Amino acid sequence: MQGRNGRAASLLFALLVSSSSLAFGQEPPPAPPAGKAAEHPANAMAEARKRHDLGLKLYDDGNYEAARIEFERAFALAPSHRILYNIALAYRALNNYVDALNTFERYLAEGGSEIQPDRRARVEKDIAELRSRIARVRVITNVPGVEISIDGIVVGKAPLTKPLPVNPGVRKVSGQAPGYLPRTITITVGSTDEATADLELESLSKTARPEPKSNPWVAPAVVGWSATGVAAITAGVFAALSLNAKSDQRDKLEQMGVTHDELKSARDKTQTLSGVADALLITTAVFAGVSTFFTVKLMTTKHHAEGEKHARQPELRNLELRNLELHWGPGGIAASASF
């Protein structure tokens, strides 16, 4: 009932309430909220009357949400099935058919024989009309005990024994449970529709990132290149000493009065240092080759672990060092590898 009809019904109810002096339920009201107006039952009744009257004015002004709030505040202070009727009218004016239906049904249940037959007949007609406007959603989950929410309001836990009544329109159905990622789906339903919302939750253990594993080729690669560097530096030192010894040998050959033993000693020194330098160069080359092998293994394993992060992963995954060759020549040392 909207517009003038709704306001007329509201005013009619206001007159009924006034004539009965706000005859709230016979049972004492529940403990009112903190505040001076609610410290005593008489004050609670006065506060309830004040809020109820304000709700009637707000309803007549078309501010249905504010009216609903005032009616519910009045009901909390002094529960009465008569106030439930006004709350149901406010819900219906807000096009919240589900809560209007539930509140009307509660009104009939709590009012009982106190409700006049003509009023009961009208309410039952309103209930039948509201039922023709709501939709129903059956929620299915893959996890028992999931907390189900409709538009942010918790409505129960899975498994639900029957479909949930919802207002027509776009609805957000959500589910959450400990140890699972929350899930929300959006559905659009019309009046009398029966829809299904499949909330399949994903376990957190499946989505958790695994702890990064250490690459077994890191240490060999680091040690290999460190040994290569030390060998290269040592080879350079002995190469320099060999060049100095060779230069001393030439000087002795050009000098007068140098004995045969001195020349032989200079030649032996040059040959020894040259041999050591050559051996160290070979060692450096071997270390470099082995370190290259370890590095290739390191990079291959890294790309394999990163998976889809690297576009070239399929090519690198099967990359293996098959052959490593070292070549010595007058210009230096060259290395070649096949994969």
Structure report:
The chain has 339 residues and is of the alpha+beta class. It has 10 helices and 9 strands. Helix 1 runs antiparallel to helix 4 (81-93) and helix 3 runs antiparallel to helix 4. The strands form 3 sheets. It has a 4-stranded antiparallel sheet, with no helix packed on it. It has a 3-stranded mixed sheet with strand order 4-1-7, with no helix packed on it. The protein folds into 3 domains: 3-131, Tetratricopeptide repeat domain (Serine Threonine Protein Phosphatase 5, Tetratricopeptide repeat); 135-206, Carboxypeptidase-like, regulatory domain (Immunoglobulin-like), CATH 2.60.40.1120; 218-338. It starts with a helix and ends with a strand. It is rod-shaped, with a radius of gyration of 46 Å. 55% of the residues lie in helices and 16% in strands. The longest helix is centred in the C-terminal third of the chain and has 47 residues, at 260-306.
